[in-house]
């Protein structure tokens, strides 16, 4: 029996038509198949759990309690043009145009028979993709968030080397060369981070793709902000005091703020902070307007700078963009239409200068609008924020998620008729008979995702140009942490 034949038999016998290493029943089936072939099942199963991505993995998040699903992580990497590691050790970038069918299946939560074509034209089955730490492999569950902590701390060390050891731009040898360990040790006094030095050195050994990005980001930051006796912070006590001041103001001023339950990263998404000894954390105000003014003034004086970090590709240069500068009028976004195909659960909202995707995260339980393409690094707005914006503009809210799930699961006539109306109007003119056939064969991910994305599109289409432009502008500002209550930061990206 070949490997392909083994996988085909396992898939055929599994509960959902594709096997999951998280499903005890599927594991038992695989064990039976292997034992019939006189193959040591326990060793192989343990290796499989670590080695590659299975279709069943996509139903869960790395940390099952939190977003995002592994399928969402996979889609985000495709959108951002990031590298994937294969089980043979090679690395590829998925071509979204040539992989459109499988991308659409991912969006619809259909994980069967996924194949992706890379930028060199080679096709790869899902099981050929390495289950790296960001997908819950290697370092185990939580590996992705652990690597984020270490990666951001690594930026702090690299900046300390540039500012204090090299006193100039850094290069590959400073992070991976013979003297790098010595330089990291010397830099330790200039950082305040939550990762240990040995974790950072191990990170560079494991994550080769990141060191080039960190070098580019470090040299751009060094160019923009000459050293003012900075200590570089990541999740330090000083940073925690700063965000506690924001949280206090949120509780105290809830009724006067644009978003009463704004998350930390929508106020300021900085991953690391340059802070010198002129900054007194005890002086941070508990009033959000005053606090935002303090941050803007400290930024302008070069005493405290919040920096949001994004990966920079091998062929790209690091660029900077400043957000929420009170001295600069924010750019305005205008609605330019939408795209919503028959097969995809998502809808694309077009605006001046870009597009955003209205789609579900965590299977069918979290509707978001996410800025698309390279601008995906701008983030997303969830349903609570979207409904706040709709209500502020006098429009009806999107219905509660569980209500929609229950209604469509139970074939509620009103919700079914509304989805047919939306599809017939906004996607494709279709007979009731043909739509019923499409509906009954569709996955829940397609039904729920299509319903929500078209509900939002309908509101935008019916209220052009205003308040549609105002609504879209506010959604995009929230997604990119640029609300009127957000504070100043700089983003380093590609």
Structure explained in plain terms:
- With 494 residues, the chain is of the alpha+beta class.
- It is built from 19 helices and 15 strands.
- It has helices at residues 3-13, 24-36, 41-51, 70-79, 100-107, 143-166, 172-176, 180-187, 197-206, 208-224, 237-252, 264-267, 288-301, 383-392, 401-409, 413-426, 432-441, 444-462, 468-479, and strands spanning 83-85, 91-93, 115-117, 123-125, 191-192, 231-233, 272-275, 304-309, 319-323, 335-339, 347-351, 354-361, 366-371, 380-382, 489-493.
- Strands 5-6-7-8-15-9 form a 6-stranded mixed sheet. It has a 5-stranded antiparallel sheet with strand order 10-11-12-13-14. It has a two-stranded antiparallel ribbon with strand order 1-2.
- The chain is globular and about 70 Å long.
- Residues 139-143 have low confidence and may be disordered.
Strand order of the largest sheet: 5-6-7-8-15-9
Total strands: 15
The percentage helix is: 40-55%
Can you summarize the main beta sheet?
6 strands, mixed
Q: Evaluate the radius of gyration.
A: 24 Å
Indicate the overall shape: globular
Structural class label: alpha+beta
Distance between the termini: 47 Å
Q: Stretches where pLDDT falls below 50 for ≥5 residues?
A: 139-143
Strand content: 5-15%
Number of helices: 19
Overall pLDDT:
86
